[in-house]
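Can you please make up a whole protein chain along with its backbone structure tokens because I've never seen that pairing?
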Amino acid sequence: MKKYANCQKIFLFLVVALLLTLLFPDASFAYIDPGRGSSFMQIIVAVVLGIVAIPKAIKIFFDSLFGKDKS
């Protein structure tokens, strides 16, 4: 579990930052497109999943490249 400790800290930071932003908004009189929120959420999910998936994919690639078998 130590392997993903840094990813968990980053994810926790992003969640806390998002909650603080939503709970304590500044007064704003600008129009924000409703689709913008879903775009931001999609970006955040993609970044988090990328951080988790890319190291594993790189490890699998190099293991197969240098002939390490799972069995």
